[in-house]
Write a structure and sequence with these properties.
The protein is about 10% helix and about 40% strand. The chain is mostly beta strands and about 180 residues long. It has one domain: Substrate Binding Domain Of DNAk, Chain A, domain 1 (Sandwich). The longest helix has 8 residues, at about 35-45. The protein starts with 6 loop residues before the first strand and ends in a 5-residue tail after the last helix.
């Protein structure tokens, strides 16, 4: 087994207002797709030019781990699915960061409260992992939901859902229970 490439890990608390947060390029005008809300509800993510929205099970602060890799993913690894056993939902998509300045923010977070980081400008392959989605209490305040995002420079992923959260699958197709 090969050693993992160098990466920088960021532990971030982000306010997931309206059950979502986003990663976006700081400088470029972001292109919000028309199906933003529908995609967040049906897939837990949505992408546009310079922006990716991520759905959550809380309308509060959430714990996010963001891993930014220094090198592109090996082509062999890129074509294999990641280990998903402990995760509820896993997707891969892409984000453009032409300014080299990435924002991690809630939908209405003030700029001064936004998590900002500088990364090499360019396109990134993104894998998003959700876990503990079924652990929230009845009020949705307490639980062990976690979110992991991996960014790989110059790694163009085929955009797709790798693993679908059971509750989401039942919501989309109730006959499967």
């Amino acid at each position: 087994m090969a050693d993992a490439p160098d990466k920088i890990t960021h532990s971030i608390m982000v306010f997931a207002e309206n059950f979502q947060f986003q990663l976006q390029d700081q400088i470029e005008d972001c292109d919000y797709p028309e199906d933003w809300n529908d995609s967040l509800l049906s897939q837990l993510y949505v992408g546009g030019r310079g922006i990716v929205g991520i759905g959550t099970v809380r309308d509060l602060d959430i714990e996010l781990t963001l891993e930014v890799y220094a090198a592109p993913m090996d082509e062999k690894d890129m074509n294999e699915d990641p280990e998903v056993g402990e995760f509820d939902h896993v997707v891969q998509c892409n984000i453009e960061v032409p300014s080299g300045k990435l924002l991690v923010t809630g939908s209405t977070t003030e700029y001064d409260d936004t998590y900002k980081l500088e990364i090499p400008a360019g396109q990134y392959g993104m894998r998003i992992f959700w876990s503990g989605l079924d652990t929230l209490d009845e009020l949705g305040f307490e639980g062990d939901d976690k979110y992991l995002i991996q960014l790989y420079p110059e790694t163009p992923f085929e955009e797709r859902i790798i693993k679908t959260w059971r509750q989401l699958a039942l919501q989309l197709n109730p006959q499967n229970n």
